[in-house]
C-alpha cells in the first residue's frame, strides 16, 4: 500500500514530481508525458523501478524516489523520505577513464593522512571508498567535490583518510567506481610525499568537509627544487 513518488530535479531548480505509483497504477503529473515512463514494483524485494524511454538532452537531471512515512500514528503525522538520488547525464562525449590515480601520504604528529587523487575522468559521477580488508572505512574519511579547470572538460577528485601512526604497516585501499570501470589502490608502497594540499572546509563545524582544490603535487625532489628556485627568485 506504500505510495512511491518519483521526482526530477534539474540543476539550480526545485524538484518536480514526475509521477506517483500505487496499487499497480501510475499517475503522471501534467508536466510530463505518461508514455515515456514505466514503473515496475517488486514488493517482495522492496524494489520500485522507474524506466525512462526516448531519452533527450533535456532529461539531464537528478532523479529521486520518495514516500510518506508516519511520524506519529496517533495524530496521523507524516513526513516525506527521499533517497540519495541518481544523476543522469546525457552527452555525446562518451566516457573517459581517469588519466591518473595515486595515493600520497603525509605524517603529522601521531597521525598519517592518505590522500587518494583521481584525475581527468568524464563524466563527473564517481564513487570513492576506503576499505580495510573487506570492511569499508567511514570514520575520519573526507571526500571532496569534483572539479575541473575552466578550459578542460574532464574532472578530478580527491579523498583522504586519516589514521593513527601505529597503523603505518596496515594496508588500506582507495577504490573508485566510474562508468568507465573501477580500480583499487593500496596504501603500501607509497613513495611520494604530499608537499602542498589546499582545501576548503566550509562546513567542517557541521562534520562535513569538502576538498575543493589540490593545486600542487610535487612528485620528485628535483621538481621540488626547481619550483623553489622560481619562488625565491
UniProtKB/TrEMBL annotation:
Cell compartments where the protein resides: Membrane
Coiled-coil annotated spans: none
Q: What domain of life?
A: Eukaryota
What residue ranges are annotated as transmembrane? Answer: 189-205, 211-232
Keywords recorded for this protein, A-Z: Immunoglobulin domain, Membrane, Receptor, Transmembrane, Transmembrane helix
**Pfam families from the UniProt entry:** C1-set, V-set
Q: Which PROSITE patterns match?
A: IG_LIKE (PS50835)
Q: Record's GO cellular component, any one?
A: membrane
Signal sequence extent: none
Origin species: Crotophaga sulcirostris
Tell me the protein's name: IGL1 protein
Cite the Gene3D superfamilies for this sequence. Immunoglobulins
Positions of the Ig-like domain: 98-186
Extract the PANTHER family matched here.
T CELL RECEPTOR GAMMA CONSTANT 1-RELATED, T-CELL RECEPTOR GAMMA CHAIN
Which InterPro entries is this protein grouped with? Answer: Ig-like_dom, Ig-like_dom_sf, Ig-like_fold, Ig_C1-set, Ig_V-set, TRG_var/const_region
Amino acid at each position: 500500500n506504500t505510495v512511491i513518488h518519483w521526482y526530477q530535479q534539474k540543476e539550480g531548480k526545485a524538484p518536480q514530481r514526475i509521477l506517483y505509483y500505487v496499487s499497480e497504477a501510475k499517475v503522471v503529473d501534467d508536466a510530463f508525458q505518461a508514455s515515456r515512463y514505466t514503473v515496475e514494483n517488486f514488493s517482495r524485494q522492496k524494489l520500485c523501478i522507474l524506466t525512462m524511454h526516448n531519452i533527450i538532452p533535456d532529461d539531464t537531471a537528478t532523479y529521486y524516489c520518495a514516500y510518506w512515512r508516519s511520524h506519529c500514528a496517533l495524530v496521523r503525522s507524516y513526513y516525506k523520505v527521499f533517497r540519495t538520488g541518481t544523476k543522469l547525464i546525457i552527452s555525446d562525449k562518451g566516457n573517459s577513464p581517469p588519466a591518473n590515480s595515486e595515493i600520497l601520504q603525509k605524517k603529522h604528529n601521531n597521525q598519517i593522512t592518505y590522500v587518494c587523487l583521481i584525475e581527468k575522468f568524464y563524466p563527473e559521477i564517481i564513487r570513492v571508498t576506503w576499505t580495510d580488508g573487506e570492511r569499508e572505512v567511514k570514520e575520519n574519511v573526507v571526500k571532496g567535490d569534483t572539479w575541473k579547470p575552466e578550459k578542460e572538460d574532464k574532472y578530478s577528485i580527491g579523498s583522504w583518510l586519516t589514521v593513527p601512526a601505529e597503523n603505518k604497516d596496515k594496508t588500506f585501499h582507495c577504490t573508485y567506481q566510474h562508468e568507465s570501470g573501477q580500480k583499487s589502490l593500496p596504501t603500501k608502497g607509497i613513495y611520494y610525499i604530499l608537499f602542498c594540499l589546499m582545501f576548503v572546509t566550509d562546513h567542517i563545524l557541521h562534520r562535513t568537509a569538502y576538498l575543493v582544490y589540490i593545486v600542487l603535487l610535487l612528485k620528485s625532489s628535483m621538481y621540488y627544487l626547481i619550483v623553489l628556485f622560481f619562488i625565491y627568485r
